[in-house]
Design goal:
About 30% of the residues lie in helices and about 20% in strands. The protein has helices at about 15-20, 25-35, 35-40, 95-110, 150-160, and strands at about 40-50, 65-70, 75-85, 120-130, 170. It has a 5-stranded mixed sheet with strand order 1-2-3-4-5, sandwiched between helices. The protein is globular, with a radius of gyration of 17 Å.
Length: about 180
């Protein structure tokens, strides 16, 4: 069964349908924005688009999300969660919203795999099409917290904040990575 077609309004709808509607083209775009160590470990022939959305209903006119599954070359499952953002300004709270969406994906996965004792890797990506392609908002949820202190004291406070490693890649619709890899 094929996933439902992308339902996104606006001028970038055609681009998104063309790029992410077929696994081969989606794989090319994903390879362009993911870090090289991830690209080299993914079995791209296993890439599949899954159905279902976790975007908040009130945001569906400006956002569309896609979930792709693949296998790593060593056999583990991988989930690539792509949020297509249809707005021309940067949203300061995007990192928090992405965290919420990833948690929803994990919760959904757990209902389908209650016997599992580990979670699959989920890599969130934001595709953004702002005027100059630059993303200036925080890329990590931890950057949104008002952490007290300076220097070493500040770092002790930061150690208590939720962390999920490197920020997710943010890419312009032209495939340009907006973060240093």
């Amino acid at each position: 069964m094929l996933p439902a077609p992308l339902a996104m309004p606006g001028p970038h709808d055609l681009f998104a349908r063309f790029t992410f509607g077929h696994p081969e083209r989606a794989a090319a775009e994903l390879r362009a924005v993911l870090p090289p160590h991830v690209v080299s470990e993914v079995d791209w022939s296993s890439l599949r688009r899954e159905s279902g959305s976790v975007v908040d209903p009130e945001l569906r006119e400006t956002e569309s999300d896609l979930l792709f599954t693949a296998r790593l070359r060593e056999g583990r499952p991988l989930r690539l969660y792509v949020l297509l953002e249809h707005q021309s300004s940067v949203d300061r709270w995007m990192a928090l919203r992405m965290l919420r969406y990833v948690v929803r994906q994990v919760e959904h996965w757990r209902t389908q795999h209650p016997e599992s004792t580990v979670l699959p890797v989920i890599i969130p990506l934001v595709m953004y099409h702002g005027p100059d392609g630059a993303w200036s908002a925080p890329r990590r949820a931890e950057e949104l917290f008002d952490v007290p202190g300076e220097g070493e004291q500040r770092e002790r406070w930061r150690a208590l904040m939720p962390r999920f490693g490197d920020p997710p890649p943010h890419a312009g619709l032209q495939g340009r990575a907006l973060q240093d890899r």
